[in-house]
Amino acid sequence: MATSGSVNYALTSRQVVSSALELLGALQVGETASAEDAALGLKHLNLMLKTWGTDPTLFIQVEGSVTLSASTASYTSSPVSLARRVIGVRRRTSNIDTPLMPMSRQEYLDTPNKSGTGMPVGFYFDPQRTTRTLYVWPAPTTAIASSTTLRLDYHRVIEDSDSLDDDPDVPQEWLEAMIYGLAARLSIIPGYCADPNQRAEIKDRAVALVAQLRADSEESESVFFSPC
Fold first, then answer.
1. Over 80: is that where the pLDDT of 87 sits?
2. Phi then psi for 160, rounded to 5 degrees?
3. d(CA 121, CA 111)
4. Residues 78 and 124 in one domain
5. What dihedral angle (degrees, nearest 10) is formed by the CA atoms of 4, 10, 12, 18?
6. Whole-model pTM?
7. What's the CA gap between 72 and 70, in Å, rounded?
8. Domain residues for 48?
């Protein structure tokens, strides 16, 4: 019998929440979660993903481009706004990449003339609660800005699941671990799982799945995450 030939399996946030409730026995297969249970599950799904996102081993690593502006030292638009950590920055001129030197917050603040212009040689990334800013030093001249772009290698923030109909922003390999992780979180809420042995089994399975993903990622340098 032929295989499907497809590799696009996905679950919506609603399906993830329902699957977690089914593991707990709080929802029978084929039943629909109540609005209250679904909302609680979605809240904890988002909280779990945000917690996982603080682990540098979880981050989704991507590359993006920043267009330079003359005499401008700070940049906040995409992809900077999507970055949790910036791993490296390169100047690209005529398809030639030159790495910029990473600067600590103190090193950048101690720079005497932050508005000076020239060829950027250093960068500082400042992730705040609502705004993420990339500073370059020195700021580019008009000629450099017109002929040079910045290439960012960065860890991207995991997107919110704003709706139960959204797909969680994770690779499909994480789906089972996400379901068990969510079930483990919900299991300690009164009324969702009265059996301590069942809670322990769910937590153990969640930890084992995360360990498996981590081991695979350490070998292949792909994306992985840590348990809640």
1. yes
2. -70, 150
3. 13
4. yes
5. 80
6. 0.83
7. 5
8. 13-56+160-220
